[in-house]
Each structure stands twice: as structure tokens, then as C-alpha cells.
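Supplementary material to the annual report.
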Amino acid sequence: MSQIQETVHQMGRQARDASYRLSQLSSDEKNAILHAMAAGIRESVPQLLKANALDLVAGEEKGLSSAMLDRLTLDKKRIEAMAEGIDQVATLPDPVGQVLDQWDRPNGMSIEQVRVPIGTIGIIYESRPNVTADAAVLCFKTGNATILRGGSEAIHSNRAIAEALQTGGAKAGLPDHTIQLIPFTDRESVAVLAGMDKYLDLIIPRGGKGLIETVVSLARMPVIKHYDGICHLYVDPEADHEMAINIAINSKTQKPGVCNTLETLLVHEKIAAEFLPKISAALVARGVEIRGDEKTCGILTEAIPATEADWETEYLDLILSVKVVGSLEEAVEHINHYGSHHTDVIVSQNQVTAEKFLRAVDSACVFHNVSTRFNDGGEFGFGAEIGISTDKLHARGPMGLRELTSYQYRVRGTGQVKS
Amino acid sequence: MSQIQETVHQMGRQARDASYRLSQLSSDEKNAILHAMAAGIRESVPQLLKANALDLVAGEEKGLSSAMLDRLTLDKKRIEAMAEGIDQVATLPDPVGQVLDQWDRPNGMSIEQVRVPIGTIGIIYESRPNVTADAAVLCFKTGNATILRGGSEAIHSNRAIAEALQTGGAKAGLPDHTIQLIPFTDRESVAVLAGMDKYLDLIIPRGGKGLIETVVSLARMPVIKHYDGICHLYVDPEADHEMAINIAINSKTQKPGVCNTLETLLVHEKIAAEFLPKISAALVARGVEIRGDEKTCGILTEAIPATEADWETEYLDLILSVKVVGSLEEAVEHINHYGSHHTDVIVSQNQVTAEKFLRAVDSACVFHNVSTRFNDGGEFGFGAEIGISTDKLHARGPMGLRELTSYQYRVRGTGQVKS
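Predicted assembly:
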């Protein structure tokens, strides 16, 4: 057994033990610990800045881009925001203990389905050090122990944050080993973590497609994936044009680099000649490049011809692919075939058409007359979000605290036996 | 690309297409198709018997045990039971379309969380041909397309059953390729299926630990696992002894070869000297071998000393490991450490103690004063069961129709954009 294996397995056993103690904490106890964790962060400002400086120096030596260095940077304001985030999680309702269902059987047994923590969760992430606090805190709020494995760029910052959380929390009774950070940043530690299904109930990779694919290919336990968003907007013949333009602009340009941004516009042929020039003008004025199918290019001289690859590309940039479709069915087929089942919108004043679209599109979020940008835990009112799942099992779409829980059946009887 | 890859990928694409049509069927349409499938089975009795005879001859030549040959055998009675099972599934409530949650946001958006089919499900199973019908029918009822990969022993029977279902169902409008059986039984087909995350949303292996382990190590999509049941019964000092004996006998001897059978008895030291001889006599009279820890062997001369391996063994036989514990906490620790988180029971007249046990034991089913044998979809009133999940994500414990669904968020607005 390598040193990495030995260390990570030891952390696994410790996390499992911690999880049994965590599941017994009341909501009040957990919230008191959360406030103590926030205090721990606030008391560790000097240590956090010092650790972060080591990462920044190493990052500059490695030649990281200024955008990367900015992501990596902690300052007093960002550290205070981290602490405020933790205090805020303490105010959210605790899903653990919620009775999801209850019924009695003819033999007199009473069956209760109750939300319980998942147990132990591995988080594998890349450069942003604030993920250390965000992920660990949401997992703790729901009674789960975490094993964190961050990227090498932020290793000193991550260690300091994890220590501040654990030390601060311990003052209010946080069980040992609730939050553990793997001290290695090489690839083997990911493989060991992903293979450790005896001690880890779930892995959540937070990062780019390459990282997620690696974890998926290695993992023996469930993985909740946050893949691409190739999001669509379909403009129906009965759409309010002004509304459609507003929604398209908001969906495409409000924050182009995120997964719930619009990538493909589908327009019904009945309105294409009238609608496309209007929306194109509005988009081009905001710097958006249009890549159109043949019909679109026939109407819009400013459009560049789209290739097959455009329909399956998440641009994350001010580029929009545009296609003219002959029917709702063609729009739905295009979305189900080329989309990533993330967020797809219809704009229409016809309720019947809209309901058909919502039922037929196989995506986590299907929207009628609202922007794609609303696929977000905060916008859904979840208070906190661990990510937007592109999976269909357990968690789909915005993942809040509920999705960090499992359930258990508690059955109470009076001596019933099976005949 | 090998022929197996080509064929299985083609089936994957077809299953995905079928799933989009299936999700649009109403409950009435699906139920009519189910009855037509049952009729398809009834009309195919001669073909089914003929196909089954080929498997039986091959099985005899291969030297299968008589128990294995019995599992493989179809006769008129078993075929009629299969058809009746399908008719019965038609009468169950359809979970698809159920609104799980609904709320409005301050900006006027209405958010609805609705049950939808998962999409496409792979089922990998071993010798029993009736799994072909059981699994495909439950998946269809919930709007899912299936790709089935059965064992080589039953290949002719499986093909005939899948054909009868698809042909019968088609008469009532079953979409093509809803139920597809992989014509290969070699290992490569499992690997190809498990790697095909583009077309398959979920894999459920139904069979022994070796099969599940193989699927887990290969799968890129979620796997719902039905691992061992190392189930415990803890007898508290405040237990009704007669009730504890009845529950232990029922849990251990009613059907020893299944996952919800009792494997380990934990007895509080306060009552061990009085209680152990009584329960041991009752168990030994029913042919149960007792393997005890040191304290148990000190009380029961008939007990064989247990080794460490006994505590983590699923005997599936008339053998019971018995341990004397000093406290509820010790019982819980033993269960959480050695158990398989399947089904664990406390017998006690003290409600407070019982509730502590139910909260602290990390198992899918925790029972108070009832037999372990009630961890079962039928006993829970689910009407049908695809298995008993030992996973914590998505499905835990008995898996009924609900657990074969996903959900989708449908958001309706009036032009909302994100500011």
C-alpha cells in the first residue's frame, strides 16, 4: 500500500466514524457549530492571507494567467464573504429529520420515510479555494462528513481554510474528522478516493469536463456530475416578440461564461423572416456573433454558416447558433438530440403549445417565458447551491441542501412476523 | 468498432429514441399496452416452451445443478404467472406526472417539480428468465426503455419472452425498441453497455456480488446495487422475550436464503444469561447453528466459537452469529461497523431506547419490534419491486415504481429575466 493509499484510507475510516456522530447532532447544535466555523474563519485572517500568499507566489512562478490568479486570490473582503456565507447557511432550514412519507400497513406496522444524511462525501475540485468552505459547510449542515481534494494551485489556502473550519467548529462541538483535506494533489489521490467505496458514499467533482470525466471513469460510488449546459430557446409562432428578444438577450449576454447561458436559438419558420432581423440586431448590438443554419443565413446577412459541431457546442462566449425549425416537434427533437438536458425554454403566448414543450423536452429545467439564467439554486430559493446537476438520478438541476440527504425507512410494530 | 459495440450502440440510440416517445404516453395508454403485453405472453406459450426446452437441454449438457435447472424452467403455470404479473402492474398507480413540489418565487415565476421517467435503463441479470418480463414491464410502466442483457443459460427463453412482450405490446401502440434484448452473452457486451453513458441513464445489475462488482467497476452511469444483507437483531434489556424469540425465528428461518434474513443476534448482557438459553433452544430446534462470541459460548454449550469473519458474513443458511453487548451504543457500533446497512431491528418495550436505535443505525431499513423479513416492496405495499437497494443515493431499501422515475423542474413565467 502506498503512502497515499494509506493516508486516504485512514481519512476514509475517520470520515465514516465522524458521520455516525454527525447524524446524531440536532439542527441547533449544527447551527451553533456553523457560527463557530465562521468565527474560526474570521479569527484566521492572518493565517489565511499568509497561506494564500504562498499559493500566489507559486502561481506566478508557474505562469498562471491573471484570471487564474484572481480566482486563487483571497483578501480580507473575500474571507469575510466566506464567513458570512457560513453564517447564512446556519439560518437555512435543516432537511435532516423531515418525514417524507408515512403510512400504515394492514398488519399494523407503521412505515415512515425520513430524510437522513448521506454519510460521507468526497469533493474533488480545482483552483478556487472558497470551494473548500462552501462544499464542506453545505455537507456539514446536512450531517455529512467530507473529504476534500483540491487542486495543487490552492493547496496552502485550502489547508488553512480546512483547518480554520475544523478548529473553529471544534469549539462548539464539531466531531473530529468532519472536514478533512487530502494533503496530496497528485492524480493517485483522486484514484484512491474514487475507488474507496467502502468509506465514501458519494463523490462530487467540481470543475471542468476533463476532471468530471476522470472521476466518472474511476469512481466505484455514485458521482453527481455538473456537465455542460447547451441551453436552447425556442421561439414559437405565437410568441411575444419583445419578450422573446428580452429573454434571449438576458439568457445569452447576462453572464456568457456559465452553464445556464443560452447557446442555441430555434425560431419557427412562420415568423423567421420577421423575427430574426429584429433579434439579430439586438444581439449584434451587444457583441454577439450569430452562426446560422442555411435558412437563417438566407435571412441574416450578418450570420456565419453554422457547422454540425455548432449544435453541440457550449460556447461560454458571445456566440449564438441559430436554426429555423418547421414545427414544435422539430424544435423538441433538435433539443433532445443536441442539447445537454440542462435548461431549455419556450417563448409562446399559447399555453397548450408551451405545455407540450415542457412535457416533451427531456431536460432538468424546462422553462416557459423566462430566462435560462434562472436555473440556479439561489433563483429557485434554495438559499445555497452545491451545483447544477446534469444527472437524472438523485439530484437533477439545481442542487440544494435536500439533495445532500438520503432517506431511511423506520418501521414500528408490535411483534409482527411474516407468515 | 467490434460487432458487439456496433450492435449495442445501435440499441442504445434506439432505446433513447423510444424513451422520448414513451414519456409522452398517458397512464391509460401504458396500461392498455401492459395488458396487450400480457396477452402477448399468453399467446406465445408454445414458442416460450420451445425456446425454454433449448435452454434446458443446453443446461443439462453443461451439467447445471437441479436447482439451477429449476430456476431456468418455464412451464404453463409459470408463464401464466408471468402474464398475471404484467396485468397486475397495469393496475398500479402511475408515479409519472406526479407533482412533488410547487412554489412561487417573488418575481412571479411558478416552479413545479414533476416526476418524469428516467429514460433508458440497462438490466444485467443472470439465470432466471422471468426477470426479462419483470424488469422490462416495471421500467415500461414508468415510461422507461430497457436494454436487457441476460445470462447465457437462458438466452433462448429470454429472446422469446422479449419478443412476446414487444410484439404483444405493439398491437396496443408500444413504441418500437422499448424492450430490447442484447443477443450476445459474452462479457464484452456488459462492458459496452456499462460504458455507453450517452445512451443509458442507469444500470441495474440483478444477480450475485460478482456480477454487481463487475458492473460497478465498468459503469460510467449510475448503478443501483442490491448487495448483501447482513441483518441484525438487537435484544434490549427491556425486550418482551417471547416477542424477541418469535421475531428472531421468523427473521432467521422463514426463508434463510434471501437478503433480508437475519444473520447476527446481539443480546444485552443484562439479560444474556436468562434470554440466550431460551432463544437458543428455539433456534436449535429449527436446525439453526449458533456461532457465539466468548460470552455467548460461556452461556451456551451448544454454541460454536465465532471468528472475526462471522460478523461480516451473509450466511444465507441456517447459521446465526450471536454476540453479547454491554450497551445500546455497543450494539449500534457493531451494526454500523459490520453490517451491510440493509435491515436492522431492535426489540424493546422502551420507546426511548427504540427511537435512539432507529436514529443511530445507518441502514436502509431500521425496524422496531418487527421481523427483518418485512424489508420487501410487497410488504411495504409497493405492489411491485425491482429489488432492495443497498445504495444511499436515489433509491434506498425496497425499490418500487417511484424509484424508477426521475424529476424535472417546470418553470412558468411571464417574461422574467435575471437582473
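The domain at 231-378 of chain A is CATH 3.40.309.10 (Aldehyde Dehydrogenase; Chain A, domain 2).
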